[in-house]
């Protein structure tokens, strides 16, 4: 981008002439503020008048000018009047946060008070977005990784004109049914990109957002048209920095060279337990240099607006590395008695200190008041945002004319509409198909899907050759090959999950999958929970799903994992038994764009069973074989995954002895729960209490399906190191055990 | 320690004169190796004869000499004969690993082949241990964080003379019932300190082991007697380095200045998916410098014995920082066709390549053969180890004479014997005691226990003031105050859990606790699972245990967590309802030294209920109140934690209406499961099918206790951001709901 300024970067830094020890150069206001407030000519920045902004496609030229102005803002020293309005806007943000937390008597005022300057500069000067269409594809993304400071983001969305955060929403902060929950939640508040709060998730989400942009840009941009072109900004605090997931994700961001990722590290030296000196004395700058980031230090984050602007400008010049801007701030800036202390981190200031802060910052207004000049200043973002989107739409129309095929593909990714008949690409199997591990059958599905789903991409946490997740038609997504679709996450399960959440939330039609051994979902459980909560349809390809993995032993053998995910809301836990069920699991997973799917897949070979089907999988539980009549089997045998074969073998034996046996595949409990009572009764008739379940995992939870009189065969201890067949036998996960249990019941 | 050498460190590095491109300077052996092998004078190193080693306490002088020799080894260039024997020993280790993996046709030969030199030097030249007493208190600790390479450790334990790893154990590698499972497991193999395999856990365990040493040394050492004095060594690989948990733990190790922690980073550039170039290009050295570590690079880890020795010596001189020795090695060193490739990481070499490797390294022996000279050389470790322990015992006897009180306390920590009557320190409550949050009641218990349990210490992941975990009589464990007992983990839940596992495994009488919000067990689940598997009695103090935490919203409100831990083997999941139950939970937790306990504690105030008791908690589930007779209530109401009060209120109402109601507290399902059938029938008579459970969490699993006809009141969705009372009401977690459910059943 061209700059209209002739100042150099260092000049700009040097030219920062006014500092305001308490965040404002205003004189203490007299008691009747309405009469005495200084007035400003509006709008102010660089003389750009919002009223002069066109809202049609013809605005392209002007909007480009605005871009240039924004870029130049970083090196211009605003005049005193303008700086005063920035001060006022920044203080507006601070007091919206203070007042909302005060009213809720709950929340975190400290971060918004300290980060208001960088927040103001980002949303008012730097970022490109359309408040009236928070989903505009080419918007800059912003992530508040330090999610507890969400009042910062709510205040900014409010000022910028998002419909999601009205004054009453600010007043309803943290209350039942409001759009302003206690931490940022994308599914509650349009304008919030992802769900943060659990520390470290947000920065990893941001890496995913930046990855998605880089990938799509590499695939769709043309020399004459950068149709994908946005930045990802993130604010993270000391807490995020301490979390391992942040290091994982940032190591990958450095490796991938995500130059359009710009992270602000709110370096305020305070965490909940007090000064970071008690637990966090590492040199973050050095660590990030080691991770391959460009690092800038803004020493005065409280009032050093130009420093912040210059840092952003510098960050944008570094295109082959992500940038960490360490911004030293004062938590609770402006509070005369609580600033720079942990007491301002997570509690309301209290009426007395709110008053003192109002006095200290020269803020005469009623709670939740946005001064008219601030309001007017921010009001340009609605028309500007519309113009930005219109400009992009026009650009896309041009692109579409020249690059029809690419445009169609990109459109389908943006809309999230799946290509007609995509599911026909999934392979089908017969009982005669050669026995195979479901991890291998999964790879056939992944590769089939990659051919028909333009937004399908993913990878493994350094187990691609074990998880069988490589897409054979694509290369690796790397710094110099970002158009490729195989992601190499390294041994970073937690970062992987959270990065995939970011990817999924970037654009509806991007469908990320990620993989590791099923037992290592323990490492990434917090990210999987965020997938479920934030409605990210990530596909988790989890192989080596039981003691069936054999010799690696109990540290690698999942036991309680199926149960632990069945208990988690909004997760589809799928454990397919063979080829058709694996295909069915993928069909379900792809269709569920607002619910993550976890596929538990075997390492060992399994037979393709008569009676399994995609349609059956879609119902979660279904009859695979049955020799009873009138819905009255003598016994119902239930199994999942690799144990369905064992249940089927046991049924064969029992039938030879004259028993009427039904075999039910319970591939997904959640999907079965969603079926009608009539369907459930057709599979599990209440009158039949002779029920046996078999699953190579914890029996926890099976009581629900087998009833008080049934028997659950499973493993309620840790695994062991030995060949798989041996462990199955020693642990009694055998057809013989099923037969004995069935006979004891019928 | 004094060094008997006059060489300087740099001289020692320069003096490394012999390098062996294929790991051996032996000429290729002729076909009949028994006749033609070079012979060595034995034992060789520095002329120390193992036969001259005393095994009684009088060996102190000689053992001290041996120490000095060991210290000096780092700067001495061994003569050619000695180096040849080291080569031979190193190759023995390599081939024991190769042969065991080959026989099992499963395992990871690459790491042992690459790390054999550092392994040899550690176990043969540096570490102080007693093979015949793997539990000797003052031993050096070794952790193989890259646990997949466990054949390295098994080979070393075998050579060193540990009874746990005999030749038949090596031959039974990864087989059912062997002492040599697929990853190192402390509960299977004496001599293995902790359970590794899941990457990153081991390095964090090592931080815990080093922390324990530093703490005990600070408490018990005297100017005239360093009674606690050992090093903690660890080998970690690229995989461990990528894991976030490793960064968390290493950041803390740097912060705490754990100078006696020496970590070898096996820098072999290969992970499962291939060259680390594809996913791991950060500068690890720089990152560790940022983390406050001393960093040394050994460029030739394959044959640079003196480089390794010099690095260890240098590491020991740096007493205020942990040291990372980056050792560049070749994975699968010696394999002519597979070295330096991922194919040697996790698969047997195959007969052909084993042959080629034998030829390449000049190894003429049969599989599993330990050459006599190598065997003899290592044989000194049994008498030496006995002498070391005897020396220490004598030192302790001296210490005991001078410092009776301290000696008694240290003894009780070493033995793990709890002081008589310790449990009497726990507070008791009556229904008249003021209502309080169980997190506060927990703090009373923690502080009471700290007074009577000498090995009790712990802390929180930056939530001490929310988790209420500070021990008021102690200060913070910090670099300069390591004798204190409040640990400050920062926002590093995963690292915290794994560090506590290390602390717990250091010495039986150290009882660590750690704390965060219950929902963030998701961040540390992998570490909790290792607690359970490795039998580490860590106490997890998990507060904010439900929607009752209120406004922070769904990211912070646990839902599925109780169920997810009830499904995990060997975990005690405890959710106390009031003061007496909290005290009971702590009694259980302290007594269970081989099973971790998780205490789910409320943020909100709860009444002390009539009928709750410590004894009740010990049974897991028990009747709190009952107005029925003959074990035939009309309905049984069950609850846990904060909902027991709601169940009790509902019972009061129902009784007013003439119902015979039993209220059962289900504080720990695991403990209830362990009771006799008769006891269970006395609490939950089979004949009574009218059962209602209430718990502010997932209903998953409750079917087991309420039976097919019962009703479970719970929360099978994510939470919400609002004041606690409001959410309880909106989610129907109320006495009214219990009453309605009960009435529908009886």
Set out the fold topology.
The structure is a homodimer of 746-residue chains.
Chain A: H1 9-14, H2 33-36, H3 60-73, H4 80-104, H5 110-126, E1 141-144, H6 150-160, H7 167-171, H8 201-220, E2 232-237, H9 238-242, H10 244-256, E3 261-267, E4 270-271, E5 274-275, H11 284-290, E6 294-298, H12 305-317, E7 323-328, H13 351-361, H14 372-379, H15 381-402, H16 404-415, E8 436-437, H17 438-452, E9 456-460, H18 464-467, E10 486-488, H19 493-506, E11 511-517, H20 521-534, E12 539-543, H21 561-566, E13 572-574, H22 579-591, E14 597-600, E15 605-606, H23 614-619, E16 622-626, E17 635-639, H24 642-656, E18 661-665, H25 669-673, H26 677-683, E19 691-694, H27 703-706, E20 711-713, H28 724-730, H29 735-745
Parallel strand pairs in A: 1-2, 2-3, 3-7, 6-7, 9-10, 9-11, 11-12, 12-14, 13-14, 17-18, 17-19, 19-20
Antiparallel strand pairs in A: 4-5, 8-15, 16-18
Helix pairs in contact in A: 4-5, 4-6, 4-13, 5-6, 8-10, 8-19, 10-19, 15-16, 17-22, 19-20, 24-29
């Amino acid at each position: 981008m061209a700059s209209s300024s002739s100042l150099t970067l260092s000049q700009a830094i040097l030219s920062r002439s006014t500092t305001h020890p308490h965040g404002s150069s205003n004189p203490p206001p007299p008691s009747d503020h309405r009469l005495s407030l200084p007035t400003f000519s509006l709008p102010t920045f660089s003389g750009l008048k919002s009223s002069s902004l066109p809202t049609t496609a013809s605005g392209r030229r002007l909007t480009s000018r605005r871009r240039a102005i924004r870029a130049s803002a970083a090196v211009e020293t605003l005049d005193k009047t303008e700086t005063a309005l920035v001060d006022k806007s920044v203080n507006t943000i601070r007091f919206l946060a203070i007042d909302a937390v005060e009213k809720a008597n709950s929340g975190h005022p400290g971060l918004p008070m300290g980060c208001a300057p960088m927040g103001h500069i980002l949303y008012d000067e730097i970022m490109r977005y359309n408040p009236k269409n928070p989903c505009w594809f080419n918007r800059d993304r912003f992530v508040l990784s330090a999610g507890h400071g969400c009042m910062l983001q709510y205040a900014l969305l409010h000022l910028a004109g998002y419909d999601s955060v009205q004054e009453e929403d600010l007043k309803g902060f943290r209350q039942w049914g409001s759009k302003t929950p206690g931490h940022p939640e994308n599914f509650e508040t349009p304008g919030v990109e992802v769900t943060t709060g659990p520390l470290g998730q947000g920065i990893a989400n941001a890496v995913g957002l930046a990855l998605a942009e880089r990938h799509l840009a590499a695939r769709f941009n043309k020399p004459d048209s950068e149709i994908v072109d946005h930045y990802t900004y993130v604010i993270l605090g000391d807490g995020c920095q301490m979390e391992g997931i942040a290091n994982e994700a940032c190591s990958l961001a450095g490796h991938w060279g995500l130059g359009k990722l710009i992270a602000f590290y709110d370096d305020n030296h305070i965490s909940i337990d007090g000064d970071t000196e008690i637990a966090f004395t590492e040199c973050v700058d050095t660590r990030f240099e080691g991770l391959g980031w460009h690092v800038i230090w803004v020493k005065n984050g409280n009032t050093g607006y130009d420093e912040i602007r210059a840092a952003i400008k510098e960050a944008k010049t570094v295109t082959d590395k992500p940038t960490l801007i360490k911004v030293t701030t004062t938590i609770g800036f402006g509070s005369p008695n609580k600033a720079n202390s942990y007491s301002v981190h997570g509690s309301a200031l209290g009426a007395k200190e709110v008053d003192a802060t109002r006095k200290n910052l020269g803020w005469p207004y009623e709670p939740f008041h946005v001064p008219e000049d601030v309001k007017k200043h921010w009001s340009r973002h609605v028309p500007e945002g519309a113009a930005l989107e219109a400009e992009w739409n026009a650009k896309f129309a041009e692109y579409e004319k020249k690059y029809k095929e690419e445009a169609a593909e990109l459109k389908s990714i943006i809309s999230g509409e799946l290509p007609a008949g995509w599911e026909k690409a999934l392979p089908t199997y017969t009982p005669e198909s050669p026995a195979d591990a479901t991890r291998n059958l999964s790879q056939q599905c992944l590769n089939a899907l990659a051919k028909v789903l333009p937004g399908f991409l993913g990878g493994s946490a350094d187990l691609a050759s074990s998880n069988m997740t490589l897409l054979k038609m694509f290369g690796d997504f790397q710094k110099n090959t970002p158009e490729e679709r195989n992601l190499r996450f390294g041994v970073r399960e937690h970062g992987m999950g959270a990065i995939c959440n970011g990817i999924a939330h970037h654009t509806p039609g991007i469908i990320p999958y990620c993989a590791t051994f099923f037992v290592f979902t323990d490492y990434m459980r917090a990210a999987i929970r965020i997938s479920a909560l934030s409605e990210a349809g990530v596909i988790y390809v989890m192989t080596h799903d039981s003691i069936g993995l054999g010799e690696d032993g109990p540290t690698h053998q999942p036991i309680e994992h199926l149960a632990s995910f069945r208990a988690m809301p909004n997760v589809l836990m799928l454990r397919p038994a063979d080829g058709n069920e694996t295909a069915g699991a993928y069909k379900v997973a792809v269709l569920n764009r607002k619910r993550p799917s976890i596929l538990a897949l075997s390492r060992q070979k399994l037979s393709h069973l008569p009676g399994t089907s995609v349609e059956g999988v879609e119902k979660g539980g279904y009859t695979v074989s049955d020799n009873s009549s009138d819905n009255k089997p003598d016994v119902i045998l239930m199994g999942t995954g690799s144990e369905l074969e064992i249940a089927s073998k046991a049924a064969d034996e029992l039938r030879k002895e004259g028993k009427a046996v039904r075999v039910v595949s319970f591939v997904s409990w959640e999907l079965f729960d969603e079926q009608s009572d009539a369907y459930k009764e057709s599979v599990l008739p209440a009158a039949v209490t002779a029920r046996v379940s078999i699953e190579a995992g914890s029996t926890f939870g099976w009581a629900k399906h087998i009833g008080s009189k049934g028997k659950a065969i499973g493993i309620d201890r840790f695994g062991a190191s030995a060949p798989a067949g041996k462990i199955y036998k020693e642990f009694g996960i055998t057809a013989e055990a099923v037969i004995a249990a069935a006979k004891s019941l019928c």
